[in-house]
């Protein structure tokens, strides 16, 4: 299966109401899941003359994806997110310096890091011109699809 097809599959599962998906053949095993929490709000009738107790008002499904707590904070600036699941590398090899560090000026298309997925090294490019304000991932950290990685101001 080609990387483009895998990415399309990831997007399709992420956008759907599926909570779990598994695909397996002779050489490939893909397993994806996401948590689904049901939130039900209740309204209390405050009129003492009315004997009804609780009435359901809204039932809403909320999708929760696991993301590092630091990434839940409100970010200012433009956020570069991981386009796939894999391992993040700050440099092209352990003996090379990182592609970028906080305070570096970057331009659109400049390589910020690498995400390795299925033994393929995928360059993560800046989508914006600006200055690296924050690097939200550590070298060799696993990243998820859509996980914020860099904040560019």
Automatic annotation (TrEMBL):
<dbReference type="InterPro" id="IPR001249">
    <property type="entry name" value="AcCoA_biotinCC"/>
</dbReference>
<dbReference type="GO" id="GO:0003989">
    <property type="term" value="F:acetyl-CoA carboxylase activity"/>
</dbReference>
<comment type="pathway">
    <text>Lipid metabolism; fatty acid biosynthesis.</text>
</comment>
<comment type="function">
    <text>This protein is a component of the acetyl coenzyme A carboxylase complex; first, biotin carboxylase catalyzes the carboxylation of the carrier protein and then the transcarboxylase transfers the carboxyl group to form malonyl-CoA.</text>
</comment>
<keyword id="KW-0275">Fatty acid biosynthesis</keyword>
<dbReference type="InterPro" id="IPR001882">
    <property type="entry name" value="Biotin_BS"/>
</dbReference>
<feature type="domain" description="Lipoyl-binding">
    <location>
        <begin position="77"/>
        <end position="153"/>
    </location>
</feature>
<dbReference type="GO" id="GO:0006633">
    <property type="term" value="P:fatty acid biosynthetic process"/>
</dbReference>
<dbReference type="InterPro" id="IPR000089">
    <property type="entry name" value="Biotin_lipoyl"/>
</dbReference>
<protein>
    <recommendedName>
        <fullName>Biotin carboxyl carrier protein of acetyl-CoA carboxylase</fullName>
    </recommendedName>
</protein>
<dbReference type="InterPro" id="IPR050709">
    <property type="entry name" value="Biotin_Carboxyl_Carrier/Decarb"/>
</dbReference>
<dbReference type="GO" id="GO:0009317">
    <property type="term" value="C:acetyl-CoA carboxylase complex"/>
</dbReference>
<dbReference type="InterPro" id="IPR011053">
    <property type="entry name" value="Single_hybrid_motif"/>
</dbReference>
<keyword id="KW-0276">Fatty acid metabolism</keyword>
<dbReference type="Pfam" id="PF00364">
    <property type="entry name" value="Biotin_lipoyl"/>
</dbReference>
<keyword id="KW-0444">Lipid biosynthesis</keyword>
<keyword id="KW-0443">Lipid metabolism</keyword>
<keyword id="KW-0092">Biotin</keyword>
